Structure formats: structure tokens, C-alpha cells
Amino acid sequence: MRIASISLVKDEADILEGFVRHNLHFVDRMYIIDDRSTDNTPEILRRLTEETSAVRILEDGWTGAFHQARRTTAAMRLILKEEDWDIILPLDADELIRAADRSVFEADLAAIPQGMAGAFSEMRYLAGPEDDLSITDPLVRVRTALPHDPVGAFKSIATRQLLAEPTLAFDEGNHSILTHGIRVPTRSLPNVQLAHFAIRSVDQIAVKCLKHYVGWRSREDYTKNFVPTLVGGAEALKAEPRFALAPSAAIIPAYCDSYPLDQAADRPFVERRGALKWPELAVSPPYAQVIGLFDQLIARASAGDALVKAAGGEANAEAVSRVIAERNALQIEMDQLKTSTSRLAKAYWNAVVFRMRRSLRKRRYR
After folding, report:
1. In whole angstroms, what is the distance from residue 268 CA to residue 120 CA?
2. What is the pTM of this model?
3. pLDDT digits 0-9 by tens, 164-186
4. Among the four given CATH numbers 3.30.930, 3.30.70, 3.90.550, 1.10.287, the one describing domain 3-270
């Protein structure tokens, strides 16, 4: 059975090497998109790709708001063009496959009924006040886990049958799989879960909530129902009186609002596979990440101003909004054309690309 995973990662240096080395025991290739990380993530990925061909870096050129479903779906279609896969599954950098061995994993995957998607249930780990902070590796340091629902569908898994469907797409959060815009029925794996190291320290979860708050809130289709845990964590930070956060800061219960924190128990991640070769890179200074986020926002704002000026307009908020709306409408049209099988649509797509290139050349020489 040939299994591939897709991951979007951003500033995950503290867990990234452990994530890759562990999950390579269960998948044949890991495709990873680095979402403009500002910590040691790019260096860790560079070393891993030099060490093994089982790790591949994808470049999707995305610089805007956080559209996880669209980007994961696009990556899935890309890797299917390059190679044949029986299973494709999305994995975040804090998610590790928890199974006795690969044969158990493959047996669960093979038992997914025809016409259904597979899914992992979640075992969530979270940092606590009693953690030994002298241990830098979070897969060792973080020992507290919440009870998991064995039939809960936490992350989706696409089977060979579904991968043959041209309308296949992941939803936001990669919790479900859609065909023709309709959710595919799901069967959770009975003997395999995802160990989810969502909260590795108070600093880590604070920065994560801030970055995702920006990424999700900047989407043109944002609603309050998007990632309520991350937005709730960012809201909790607003009430903090100081920059320094205590281990008991309100952000953790806010982020875990729907989880039974009173049932948390000591459960070390004994299924851990692989050892770190570069523990010195496993650091993600929180302020460096926040300043890196500011730099990216500044670059996006400057690019928006430059684009409006190049089009002959004034770089005010209304003009930038019009350009963004035009870009989003064009993106939707382009996505529809890319997935269409009609010859007329393909001809029109070629015409659109030609028109865009000619327009860019004209603006370049103004």
C-alpha cells in the first residue's frame, strides 16, 4: 500500500523533526509546504530533504490569508499527477500517527468501506504547569493527554477510490472530504489515532493563536464560526495584563473550551518513533515569530499599495479592497476552469492566461 501525507507548516521548529521522523514509519512520502516560516523550520526541512527522498518540499506560491482546504486540495491534485497513491492524508506538524506498527495502520486503511473516507480520532496532548521545562523535545516533555473518542472523526483520509473522483476536496481543517461539494461518509480507524500535540507550551499556543487569528481573519469569507478555538485563544490574550504569560494563563482553557480538561491524565507518548539529530534547531522564539508575522503583513500591505498604483489608482483602502475583490473573483474563475473537463473551458483558460500575461507586461513597462 502506497501512502502519502500533505502538510502545511509554519514556525514549527520545536516539533518538526520529531514529526517527520516519526510519521515516516507509517507513510512512504511526506509532502510539506513551508508557509513562510521565520524560525528554523526551513533549515530543518532542507536537512531532511538532503537526508531522504521520502520528504518533498512543495512550493504553492501562496502569500495571502490562510486557505488550508484550498491549498491542501491543490497539493493533493499535484502529487497525484506525479505519482500513483493508494492513500493520501493531511497531517499538521503537531499530529503524529499513533499505532502499534505500520501493518496495523494498513489493515485499518484496507478495511475502509467502498465509497467512504477514513478518519483518525484524536488523542490531544497539552502542556501543563508540572512539565519539566528543561526538556526541550515536546514529544518527551508533554505527558498530559485528554481522553479520546474512538469513533470521533478528527482528520480525514482519502482512499484510492475517492482519489479517482475529479471533484474531491478537503474541507477547512481537513476534518472531512467532499465530492461535488457534499461531505463523504466517514469511518474512523479502530486501532489507529492521531496524537495531537496542540499545546506544547503557553508561549507556543499564544503565538499560534496570534498567527492564525491574522491568517483566518484576513480571509474575505471569514465568519465567526471559523476556528473558534484559535480566535477564542486570541481573545483571551487581550485580557492578559502583561506580555509574560504564566503556565496557568487563560489562553489554554480558552483554546480547549470544548475539551474535558478535568479528565486529563498522565500518559507519555510511548509510541514515539525516531530520534532527533538536530535538537539545537528545535527552538521557536515567540517574539521572533510575532515580528516575522509583522514583516509579512507589512510586505503584503506594501504589495497592495504598489499594485493599486501600478493600475493607475490611489493606494487607499477602498482601492485596495477593489483590487482584492477582483483578484478573488478571478481566482474562483481560474479554479473552476482548471478542474473543468470541457474543451471549451480549456480553450478559455488558455485565453485568460494569455490575457493576464499581456496585461502584466504592459504594466511592467509603464
Report:
1. 19
2. 0.80
3. 999 999 998 899 999 999 999 99
4. 3.90.550
